[in-house]
């Protein structure tokens, strides 16, 4: 059972928990991205188990009258074992998503997985355009990747990048990452017909997206994490399509720890909860 201190960032341990959270958000005008926690498997069995869990989640969402999508990590479906393992598991998940008409996001992990992830996305999105992929602004290759992806249907989520990448492939200074994010946004709004997802809690990046929308008229959506700037999510939902990324599952502890460590506000929240303040 997830302790109350973690409930701010994780919906629960079960499929029903995440569906219930998504249903509440739907009444508040916020859409959902449901993610089963788990990654970096080194044997086929847990990858196959999560594949089946995602198929079941997709069916459950298909039965609900809510705006909810699903997001998966390639290593969760076996990319760390073999690319063939990942591709075969992903194909089954994509087939189920297409059957239920549920949108499917493919998350991006470290830079060594970028090619395999983008290749899988471009392969499947030609047949089912209800797919999106995440790209990371801190990677120096991302502008070229975006120009390539502009020719495909589907959606692209732009994030700053959370992995500790080497300096030869990624920008490491915060100011340079912010600059790269803005450069990537400019490419997307100029060259994409739509399908732009701004994955950021940074008000400055969201302001830039709004300015680029006014300039180019290209539609976009905003994506934020459960438990982070939720007041802003509700405010933004009055004028924009907003999605909340909702994690769930029994692998919640490491995810909760990352959320605590990444922002001072989150750490203060955790400390107050521990002392009962």
TrEMBL record:
Pathway the protein contributes to: Amino-acid degradation; L-proline degradation into L-glutamate; L-glutamate from L-proline: step 1/2
A Pfam family annotated for this chain is Pro_dh
Q: Which residues form a coiled coil?
A: none
Gene3D superfamilies in UniProt: 3.20.20.220
What is the enzyme's class at the highest EC level? oxidoreductase
Under InterPro entries, the record lists: FAD-linked_oxidoreductase-like (IPR029041), PRODH_bac_arc (IPR008219), Proline_DH_dom (IPR002872), Proline_oxidase (IPR015659)
Enzyme Commission code:
1.5.5.2
Q: Which reaction does it catalyse?
A: L-proline + a quinone = (S)-1-pyrroline-5-carboxylate + a quinol + H(+)
Q: Name one GO biological process term.
A: L-proline catabolic process to L-glutamate
| A GO term for molecular function | nucleotide binding
Q: Does the keyword Ribonucleoprotein apply?
A: no
Keyword terms of this UniProt record = FAD, Flavoprotein, Nucleotide-binding, Oxidoreductase, Proline metabolism
Give all residue intervals belonging to the Proline dehydrogenase domain.
20-266
Cofactor(s) needed by this chain: FAD
Name of this protein: proline dehydrogenase
Question: Which species is the source of this protein?
Answer: Halococcus morrhuae DSM 1307
